[in-house]
Structures are given as structure tokens and as C-alpha cells.
Design brief:
Chain lengths: 51, 371
């Protein structure tokens, strides 16, 4: 007998967690770029802008 | 008692069917150049194990006796090779496109949807929850992760799952385009994206694997073997001071692992285990998972295009599955077909790498809940 409630829990929590984890990582990357821009200068300048 | 026995007397029709499948794999690898590094070893391993009395994949009770059985049991089912392959992958992956455009991580998350969708379908087909999770992960299109997860949750299904995952990785150029074309208009596929991403500094490249490992493993501890090795391999490359280690990890070491993995995964396909309705279900569910993942990534790409200030070609979302770099190449090709000015490869690499991380995280979550 399939426990659909448990399966829904695994799928729901699982998919949401993947989004949360990658979302947090995305936010961390954005913050680090922001911080480095303030501290060191502009490492994130576009190549096109530079050329 | 016979002094000498040939294999002919033990040859079964099932072996002949497996020969045909093995020849198919070798043909696709050699003649069509489709993922030859994977398909040729898998095909040859499959052929070897279906030559009767060779004993390469023989077990005495639970103990492996044959050469390939030992490699499979201790190095693959024993969860050594998949994380080490992640080390090599990390050492050959440029995180630049991902760091330059962090929001593409979300596309990598969306493209895991097929994993969870097929989990339910597999339950309907009569698989238990651990088996269903192992089958669903094929949708991530990541061979080492599929093997790692099924070795832990459903070791009896490891062979078919591994072959399905690697086959679909090789078949990305056939499976993905119809799904992408069905969900996008030609106008959307022609959306132009500036070819250059921002420049990523060396410091950012060094910080990413360290921060990535800390953040992900703290949030999903069971992803540590895969994510830890992936980030470590990348640090070896990004640091610029461990070139020898990075070269070895991504070169000869990776080749050795690929040989061992390919030939022993192929060898896990003796006719008696492979030619069962269950295997066909796994292949069927695998392709559904992969197509649904492609669709989910594309749909989030469409949504991001609507809400973003900069135009986003929705096709880059399809590269959110982990088949690196085949998915990104498919997107590049379709992009150029629709608009010859478009050069989407680097834009698609961000979600593609995010997909590798996303699938490893999904596997870690399954292990945390069920392992």
C-alpha cells in the first residue's frame, strides 16, 4: 500500500528545499559580488563595457 | 565430466538480445560519436558479461568473484567512484558563468521537477518509495548522482538506473529539442542575449567552492560526498596553485574512473537481470523524468524572461538538467537556428552547472529523508 501522504511530503519538501538551497547560494554569490565591488573596486565590470 | 566447456552450450536467446543492445551502444559511440567515452565502455562491458561462462560478473553468495563484479561491488556500489568523479568534474568545471549570473541557479532548481514528478509515477507503477526516488533522479540527467543514490536506496536497481541515466545523457540532443520546441515559439527561441557575461575575478572563483561547500553541506548534510568533492575539485583548479592536482583530477584520474565505471556498469547488465518488464519501466520513467525536467526549466526560463529587465532566452532553462555540457550545446544550436546572431552557450552553462549542484542536492535530500 502506497503512503501517498508521505510521498507528497518527500516530493514537496524535497523540491522546495532544492529551490531554497540554490536560492540561498544565489543570494550569497550576489552579496559577495556586491561586497567585493565595495571593498576592492569593480571586478564585476562587463567585458563589453570594457572593450 | 567435461574437461573443456565452451560458452556455446550456455548461450541463451537473452544473451543474443543483449549483444544487439551492446552493439547498439558501441555503434552510437564509435560511428555516431555520441558520448563515446561512456557508451563504448558500457557497451563493451555489456557484451563481455553476456558471453557465457566468462565469470566476469560472478558472485559466490554475496561475495563478488569476477573482476568486474569486484569493481562494481567495492568501487561503485561501495560509493567510491561516483564522488571521485565529482572531484574530476569539479576540476574541469568553470563556474564563471554561474558566478556572473547567479539567478541561473534557480533554473537549475526548476529543472529538478521531473525527479519529483516521476517519483509519483513510479509509485503508481508499483515501485516502493526508495525505488521511486532512485528512478526519479534519472530526470536530473546526472550519471554519478543516479548511481550514488540508487546504490544507497535501491541497490538491486542500480544496473538499469545507471544505464538509463547514462543513455539519456548521451541522448540529450535527441530528447531535449522536441520538448523545447513544443514549449517555446520561434520568436522566444530567437531572443537575443548579449554574448558577454561580466568578468569574474579570481577571488570570486576561489571563494565560490568554499562558500558553496559550506552553505550547501550545512543545509543538506547528506549531499556532502558529492558536493564536497565537486567543490574541492573546483578549488584545486580555481586556486591556481594546485595545477598538478587539478590536471590529474580532471585528466588521467578521471579517465581511469570513467573506464572502471563504464565497463562495470555495462557488466551489471546480464540478460537474466536486464530483460525484465521492470527494466523497461525504468527506461520509460527515466525518459519521462528527463523530458519533464527539461520542460520545467524551459517554463521557468519563460517566466524569468517576463519578469526580468534584461531579455532572457527561455531555452537556457532547459540546460538546467545536469548533462554538462551537452544540454548547453543543444541550447546553443537551437538558439543559432532561430537567430544566427545568438550565442547562448555561456548563458546556458550557468543553469547547466546549477543543474549538477541541484541534482546532487536533490539526492542529498532523499538520503536525508530515507537513507
Amino acid at each position: 500500500m502506497v503512503d501517498w501522504g508521505f510521498a507528497a511530503q518527500i516530493a514537496g519538501i524535497g523540491f522546495l528545499t532544492v529551490f531554497v538551497v540554490l536560492g540561498i547560494l544565489s543570494l550569497v554569490l550576489w552579496l559577495v559580488n556586491l561586497l567585493l565591488n565595495k571593498v576592492i573596486g569593480k571586478p564585476g565590470k562587463s567585458k563589453q563595457e570594457g572593450s | 565430466m567435461e574437461l573443456f566447456e565452451t560458452g556455446f552450450s550456455s548461450l541463451h536467446w537473452g544473451n543474443l538480445v543483449m549483444w544487439l543492445i551492446a552493439f547498439g551502444f558501441i555503434y552510437l559511440g564509435v560511428a555516431r560519436r555520441m558520448e563515446p567515452l561512456l557508451l563504448v565502455p558500457i557497451g563493451f562491458g555489456m557484451l563481455l558479461v553476456n558471453l557465457p561462462l566468462g565469470g566476469l560478473f560472478e558472485y559466490v553468495g554475496e561475495m563478488p568473484e569476477g573482476l568486474l563484479a569486484k569493481i562494481f561491488t567495492y568501487l561503485i556500489a561501495g560509493e567510491i567512484i561516483p564522488p571521485l568523479i565529482f572531484l574530476g568534474l569539479g576540476a574541469m568545471t568553470d563556474f564563471g558563468p554561474l558566478i556572473a549570473n547567479p539567478k541561473t541557479l534557480l533554473l537549475g532548481a526548476a529543472a529538478q521537477f521531473g525527479v519529483y514528478f516521476v517519483l509519483f509515477i513510479a509509485l503508481l507503477f508499483g515501485f516502493d518509495i526508495k525505488e521511486a526516488c532512485s528512478i526519479g533522479i534519472i530526470g536530473g540527467a546526472d550519471g554519478p548522482t543516479s548511481i550514488y543514490l540508487s546504490a544507497k536506496l535501491a541497490p538491486h536497481l542500480l544496473g538499469p538506473i545507471a544505464v538509463a541515466a547514462y543513455s539519456y545523457m548521451a541522448l540529450v540532443p535527441i530528447i531535449q529539442p522536441p520538448v523545447i520546441k513544443a514549449l517555446t515559439t520561434k520568436k522566444e527561441r530567437a531572443i537575443y542575449m548579449k554574448p558577454q557575461l561580466r568578468e569574474v575575478s579570481t577571488l570570486e572563483r576561489i571563494l565560490f567552492p568554499i562558500m558553496g561547500a559550506v552553505v550547501i553541506i550545512l543545509l543538506v548534510p547528506k549531499s556532502a560526498p558529492l558536493i564536497g568533492m565537486f567543490m574541492f575539485g573546483n578549488l584545486l583548479m580555481a586556486s591556481g596553485v594546485t595545477d598538478r592536482l587539478a590536471k590529474t583530477s580532471s585528466g588521467a584520474f578521471m579517465d581511469i574512473l570513467t573506464i572502471l565505471l563504464g565497463v562495470s556498469v555495462g557488466a551489471s547488465m546480464p540478460a537474466v537481470l536486464f530483460l525484465k518488464p521492470q527494466t523497461l519501466f525504468i527506461f520509460f520513467l527515466g525518459v519521462i523524468a528527463f523530458a519533464v525536467s527539461t520542460a520545467a526549466g524551459t517554463l521557468l526560463g519563460k517566466l524569468m524572461n517576463v519578469v526580468s529587465k534584461e531579455p532572457i532566452n527561455p531555452m537556457i532553462g532547459a540546460a538546467g538538467v545536469s548533462a554538462v555540457p551537452m544540454s548547453a550545446r543543444v541550447v546553443q544550436k537551437l538558439g543559432q537556428e532561430a537567430n544566427p546572431r545568438n550565442f547562448l552557450l555561456m548563458h546556458a552553462m550557468g543553469p547547466n552547472i546549477a543543474g549538477v549542484i541541484g541534482t546532487a542536492v536533490a539526492a542529498g535530500i532523499f538520503l536525508g529523508m530515507l537513507g
